[in-house]
Amino acid sequence: MNVIVTGAAGLVGAEVCVRLAVAGHNVLGLTHHRKPPFPTTPSVQWFAADVTRPDLGLPPRSVDRLRADRCVLVHAAAVTAFGRDDSVYDAVNVGGTAHALALAGRGEMPFVHISTAYVDQPYANGYERSKAAAESLVHGSGVDAVVIRPSIVVGAEATGAIRLFRHMYVLLRLVLEGKVGVLPGRYDACLDLVPVDRVADLVTDVVQRFGEVRNSTLPAIAGSPVTLRECSEVFAEYPSFRVPRFVPPDVFRPDALPDTQRRYHDRVVRLYEPYLRSRTVFDDSATRAFHGRRPELTGVAHLRRLLDYCLAMGYLR
Ligand SMILES: NC(=O)c1ccc[n+]([C@@H]2O[C@H](COP(=O)([O-])OP(=O)(O)OC[C@H]3O[C@@H](n4cnc5c(N)ncnc54)[C@H](OP(=O)(O)O)[C@@H]3O)[C@@H](O)[C@H]2O)c1
Hints:
By secondary structure, the chain is an alpha/beta fold. The chain folds into two domains: 2-150, 3-Layer(aba) Sandwich (Rossmann fold), CATH 3.40.50; 151-192 and 222-281 and 296-317, no CATH class. Helix content is 40%, strand content 16%. The protein contains eleven helices and 13 strands. The strands form four sheets. Strands 3-2-1-4-5-6-11 form a seven-stranded parallel beta sheet, with helices on both faces. The chain has a two-stranded parallel sheet with strand order 7-10. The N and C termini lie far apart (44 Å). NADP nicotinamide-adenine-dinucleotide phosphate binds at residues 6-7, 9-13, 32-34, 49-52, 76-80, 92, 96, 114, 116, 131, 150, 152-153, 164, 167.
């Protein structure tokens, strides 16, 4: 099978490329600014692309060849950082999906779209709004598609390993190093931390068994969320970590924080605040019916594994 992967140098995209190649498929990994995550191999070729441009900025000859090859298109490219301008999310996450769909539609390519589990509730930020808009485009496109909705993607189940420490990991470091001691949040809020291998395995399975799940939506979740209370208890098991205090969001006052903490709050914590009060538990029955496997570790055991990996890599001390 021939498979195009956008966002191929990203956290999820790179893992998907590896799995597809190991399964014997020919992969065209479309990168952007970031370098390819591993060298070209006989089964994985890299090509620079820009999803904000028609045909993803690919030369017409390449587009003709991809259409003739009847590729499957996995669309994982997105701006995933929070706090960016709406215009950026619109151009990349919404416009990029429109361009990827146009390419898929003209080439009759099955389309595997990576969305987010958080599109189904009031949007916490511009990123989520753009991911919901992108998903609507997929549903309205007439292209044969499967939508995969990961929750919060973190290190691998068996090892805790992750290639890029970003997003929640940045918040985690600020908290555990004591740079932020008080956060708005509810101790009964829960985080669904899905191992990156779980997401990549599911995407690979969907590519290979597309016909079985055509036009469906599959959550990619851990299914064993951890509450902030459990997180605090796990943090307390590590002598070098500072354990944060969560204050109910309705009484939390950022202006009462010491200057440095307030700056961290304004730059980072504020972006994650909706997740620190969310009690959403996702339903992945459709995914389990298709893919069977859920992570075996409980959320708390997996959290320990993630922290151990961060310590082993020197990301946390
Ligand atoms: N990570 C999570 O927790 C999470 C949770 C739910 C859903 N998701 C979704 O899963 C998908 C993959 O996420 P990820 O965690 O792998 O994110 P990621 O590591 O940020 O990867 C996204 C990739 O998209 C590329 N990209 C950005 N702008 C582009 C453009 N104009 N043209 C082409 N490529 C562009 C980026 O390349 P450059 O860096 O080189 O610009 C990056 O490699 C995304 O759709 C995301 O919304 C992620």
